[in-house]
Amino acid sequence: MRRAMALATGALVLVIALTGCVGTGAPVRTPTASAYPAAVASRLQSAVLAVSSASAAGDPSAAIARLDELAAILADARARGEVTAARFESITESLALVRADLEAAVAAQTDQKPGKTEKPGKGNSGKNH
Predict the structure, then answer these.
(1) Contact 51, 63 (CB under 8 A)
(2) Which DSSP letter does residue 22 get?
(3) Which sign, positive or negative, has the C-alpha torsion 36, 102, 54, 57?
(4) Which one, of 26, 73, 20, 33, lies nearest residue 50 by Cα?
(5) What does each of the 129 residues of the chain score in pLDDT, given as a tens digit?
(6) CB within 10 Å: which end of the chain, N or C, has fewer?
(7) Of 17, 113, 101, 116, nearest to 67 (Cα)?
(8) Residues forming a β-bridge with 36
(9) What pLDDT is recorded for position 111?
(10) Strands 28-30 and 33-36
């Protein structure tokens, strides 16, 4: 469980780097994409922070919900022409990696829930005594 959460948090660091989220107020410039407005960077940064916070708090289900919001913000920015196609694809690929890690964390949590037991098969001997 901890490993999955650590992987998800590590992947978020990658997303943060890919989104170029900085708080300078100036358009963001990165080596692989043209500048995009500071308002877009701010929205992405806030969404990444929400995902990261939920993940760090050990709530992968909430982190997935925040990841969905981040993906929607990114899609909206792309539709408005505020994010290049190359940048959109790069970030989307990273989001998919984060989602996979978070889904693994949810599965791990489900497997560790108290009271979860394996159900035995119907009648081990096949005889009724």
Answers:
(1) yes
(2) -
(3) negative
(4) 73
(5) 565 556 556 656 555 555 555 444 445 455 444 467 889 988 998 998 899 889 888 899 999 999 999 999 999 999 999 999 998 998 999 999 999 999 998 998 887 766 655 555 555 555 555
(6) C
(7) 101
(8) 28
(9) 79
(10) antiparallel
Place of tokens 């050990």: 58
Please give the pLDDT value at position 33.
44
Residues 65 and 57: their CA atoms lie apart, in Å, by: 14
Q: Identify which of 91, 81, 121, 109 has the alpha carbon closest to the alpha carbon of residue 21.
A: 91
Nearest to 66 by CA among 79, 77, 56: 56
| Displacement of CA 92 from its chain's centroid (Å) | 10
Tokens coding 17:
């780097």
Q: Retrieve residue 129's tokens.
A: 């005594």
CA distances from 70 to 63, 67, 110, 117, 124 (A): 10, 5, 25, 36, 50
